[in-house]
């Protein structure tokens, strides 16, 4: 990415930069006071995962059609930034999806719901103009053409609804959400945006959700990250009800912003997410978590009155694959980042209440604390099994080269009408 960037609007003044963590190299690490066994295990697990170094792919930037016909497709971020520079956007918002996610009508419905929230944002924060990116990934030549067709239709819809908001489509090969995020981040950096946010296509936002995220983000000097408070909904699957109950008791890694609805300072994501990291919220969390602060999560804030709704889990087989993917993401992060950050995440976020390995959580009473410990031990057993596989792969020189995506084929996307029921 080029270092030539615009500056945020004068009315928005970012606060002083915060300290950002950086991952350790997969090879050539030094112990630096780390216990030998811990260093050996983490270094070996890190070698057990060797994906491509970058998420970079060819992107076609789609702009809204004008009165004279279809706008030409752009192939460079610089050209897209030049076309979007009018209005000096302060925030970049991303709506990532993919062709096979649903029909154009279904994607239009979800975009309409998001545009309602963007309209609230622009009304409540006129000094923080936003640019909206709609990402459409494809998996074949036929889908590539379809992605451009759908983007043109969706951008036309967005332009008609919110003519004051600059919009841009991103047509690119999938899978991998970081590909879409990185494509938008590159343009956002060129525009000088102070923050980058994104909303997944399987969540529904309460009225005012985006506006409240922006309120708190601006109040914090456009630093760190803010995220919506997630409200779970269950489906007819037994795994959905079971996991919803378990999460309500154990609350694993839920006290920091998640990638379904998040707003992040652009400097946290400068240059885009490396190809090694699949979990967007995990990457943001480890960049900003600071155990040296009185509140290590001070720069990772959930906004209580900004709420988003989602479905918990799906069929058992697909849920198992999703949990394995989640555990691999956790393990790669625990292997890669500085030890003080890793220790805090393990003890106080991922496995808080795993008594006696970590402290006993009696905040909700003794009975609930015991239930939480039992659920955490079941989760830890699965975690250790996947971790052992990653360690052995690193030890034997047979690394994983990708973390497989595992969508829920039998679970419909949550829609605004579902939320009302």
TrEMBL record:
<dbReference type="InterPro" id="IPR029044">
    <property type="entry name" value="Nucleotide-diphossugar_trans"/>
</dbReference>
<feature type="region of interest" description="Disordered">
    <location>
        <begin position="1"/>
        <end position="33"/>
    </location>
</feature>
<protein>
    <submittedName>
        <fullName>Uncharacterized protein</fullName>
    </submittedName>
</protein>
């Amino acid at each position: 990415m080029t270092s030539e960037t615009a500056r945020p609007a004068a009315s928005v003044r970012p606060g002083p930069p915060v300290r950002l963590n950086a991952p350790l190299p997969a090879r050539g690490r030094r112990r630096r006071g780390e216990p030998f066994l811990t260093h050996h295990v983490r270094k070996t697990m890190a070698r057990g995962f060797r994906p491509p170094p970058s998420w970079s792919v060819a992107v076609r930037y789609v702009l809204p059609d004008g009165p004279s016909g279809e706008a030409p497709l752009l192939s460079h971020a610089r050209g897209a930034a030049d076309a979007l520079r009018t209005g000096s956007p302060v925030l970049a918002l991303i709506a990532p999806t993919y062709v096979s996610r649903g029909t154009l009508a279904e994607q239009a419905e979800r975009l309409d719901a998001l545009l309602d929230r963007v309209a609230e944002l622009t009304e409540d924060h006129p000094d923080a103009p936003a640019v909206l990116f709609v990402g459409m990934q494809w998996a074949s030549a036929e889908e590539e053409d379809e992605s451009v067709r759908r983007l043109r239709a969706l951008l036309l819809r967005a332009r008609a609804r919110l003519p004051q908001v600059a919009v841009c489509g991103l047509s690119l090969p999938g899978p991998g959400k970081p590909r879409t995020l990185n494509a938008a981040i590159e343009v956002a950096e060129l525009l000088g945006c102070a923050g980058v946010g994104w909303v997944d296509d399987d969540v529904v936002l309460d009225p005012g959700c985006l506006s409240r995220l922006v309120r708190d983000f601006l109040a914090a000097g456009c630093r760190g990250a803010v995220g919506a408070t997630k409200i779970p909904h269950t489906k007819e699957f037994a795994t959905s009800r079971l996991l919803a109950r378990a999460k309500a008791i154990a609350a694993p890694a839920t006290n920091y912003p998640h990638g379904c609805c998040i707003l992040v300072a652009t400097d946290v994501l400068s240059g885009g997410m490396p190809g090694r990291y699949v979990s967007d919220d995990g990457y943001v969390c480890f960049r900003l978590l600071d155990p040296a602060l009185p509140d290590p999560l001070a720069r990772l804030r959930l906004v209580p009155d900004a709420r988003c709704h989602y479905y918990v889990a799906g069929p058992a087989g697909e849920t198992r694959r999703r949990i394995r993917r989640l555990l691999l993401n956790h393990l790669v992060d625990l292997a890669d980042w500085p030890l003080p950050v890793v220790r805090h995440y393990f003890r106080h976020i991922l496995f808080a209440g795993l008594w006696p390995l970590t402290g006993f959580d009696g905040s909700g009473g003794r009975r609930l604390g015991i239930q939480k410990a039992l659920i955490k031990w079941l989760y830890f057993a699965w975690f250790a099994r996947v971790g052992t596989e990653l360690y052995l792969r690193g030890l034997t020189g047979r690394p994983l080269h990708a973390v497989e995506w595992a969508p829920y084929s039998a679970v419909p996307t949550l829609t605004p009408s579902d939320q009302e029921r």
